[in-house]
Amino acid sequence: MAQAHASPATSSRDAQSVRRDWKAWRRVFFWAFVVFLYGPMAVIILLAFQGANGGLVLPFTGPSMHWFADVFEPTYIGDFRAPFVRSLLLGLVAMVLTVVISFMAGLAFRRKFYGSGALFYLTIASLITPSLLVSLGIALFFQWLDFLPAYWQAGLGAHLTWTLPFGVLIMLAVFNRLDPAYEEASRDQGATSWQTLRHVIIPITAPGMVGVALFGFTMSYDEYPRTSLLSGDANTLPAELVSVQANNASPSLYAVGALTTFFSFVVIGLAFGSLYMMQAHRAGKLEGVPILGALGRLLGGGDAEAKKAEAARLKEEAVMEYRIAELEKKIHGVERELTAFYGMPADTAGNNEHSGR
Amino acid sequence: MSSTFDATIGKSFFKRYAPYFQALPLWLVMIDFMLIPIIVIVFYSTYRVENYVIATDFRLDDLGFLKQYWTTISSGSTWVAYWTGIKLTFFAWAISLVIGLVVSYYLVFDVPRLSTKIALFLICVIPFWTSGVIRTLAWLPFFGKDGIVNRFLDWLGFIDQPLEFLLYSEFTVVVSYVHIYSLFMVAPIFNTMARINPSLIEAAIEYGASGWQTFRNVVLPLSMPGIIIGTIFVVTLAMGDFTSIKILGGGQTGNPAYLMVNYIPLQYPTAAAQGIILLVVLLLFVAGLTRIVDIRKQL
Q: Which of A44, A46, A133, A156 best tests the B interface by mutation, with the highest count of B CBs <10 A?
């Protein structure tokens, strides 16, 4: 301390330059991490364009489309087309179910209900249970029921145990940030609960639901461990990739990898595109823009400007009413305290000790 | 009031019990595909394997129903698998933790603009939405005998012959774990760090704390919930992994989950007991950690 006081100027300048140094190192670390994340993916995509006589590793003999052609024709090592369709359908169904079930559960968790704690911890347990155990459990359950497991029933259920915890956690976070004043306003204006849900809650939570949809689709589309014991003889795409890799690896494996990675990027792009559209539509930026305007109306619903004005008015009203209600509550509280202290109103007089006066 | 009584009772019934209807689908999925399957595994773990035949009678007298558990615990390979699994998980966890802290710190405190922050964070998260199997396979051309790393080192003149330990080893498996699971550490730590009031850091610096002291005494304690949640993710995922270890481990190493995979086709009662033991170990670990942090408050 004493030293710091002796030469405050120099020491703080030294400290600052040290701090700046560390900042530079952190930036280097961050970008190194990004390279680490994307590097292997980039190599896979490069090697997918290997020449016809190229192998699984360098040297690179391409570029050629040889191995991509392999993907679209069934060869002795496997057929990727049917598994892709299966994974796509499975992902879409899992996505819809995840969004609907998570949204409903999110609504439920806003209120206290019997068993809510148990349901929450069961959902968390589903997140941390090793995926192999879920797969084995469902396989044995189906064996016990004498059902043959397949990707569209047992596999779908297994995927939901993985996508739903994420969906529910996201929806809980979204609902935690939802201001109850909006609903109160809607109710005060005479809306039924269904109208409130349709016109207030769903539009406000829509971006969160797009996030849940993205998680739901990609996590199901890419899931291997949970389907490993459940797909029967009809493999999903990740399961097909693992079995082909184990049996006979050729650069066509990388071609599939490149294609499915590209597909994932398209899906991510779609999700963020629709998020952007929602936001732009709400801000009224898409009015009069030929195609995007119509898309925005489809995603966000209705005429943006009118909605925006109406929403602003409603919000203002809601905030006022909320404040009035809070004030009233406070006034009631003060009244109660006063009553308790002075024992003023005659009908409650019997309950306090000052009644004798 | 009295004239609308019949109409309102139906409405209020639905309103009152609405959470039960809304939570019903989640209950159904969780019970059918989570709770019952685990109970079924517990049942199957009480079966015995005698002379390659599975005996399903429930024997209480000599604790016959615990035979699979006894076989598992007394087998040396179980302990080896747990040692390997814990070792791999520990290294993956430690490296992920460092990555999570440094990357989050950079994003939260070094990057000035919010939109840049979000864009850079998304760059880290996007791989999470792509195929994990592909991201595991992607290390094959990197670390192979003829792979990029070996060729590069050879070209630089550092090595005469390829480094064998790069592929099909515990090293590769840890690299793959960090590659796939570090996002589970980065996201929660970023989330909690972003909520730290920057004026706390300024105050610490004003009072003469060094960068390290500020980090150690201010940032780290306030990031603890994120660290705990990330730890839960990384540890449970790495201990339950059998894909990376199958593709990149080369059959030389195995963790408890990989041991289980080998037992499933022939002796599933043994696999069931191994699975239940693994689940109990993980649940105890997580229960211990959740005493430190309330997950529901962090959302």
A: A133
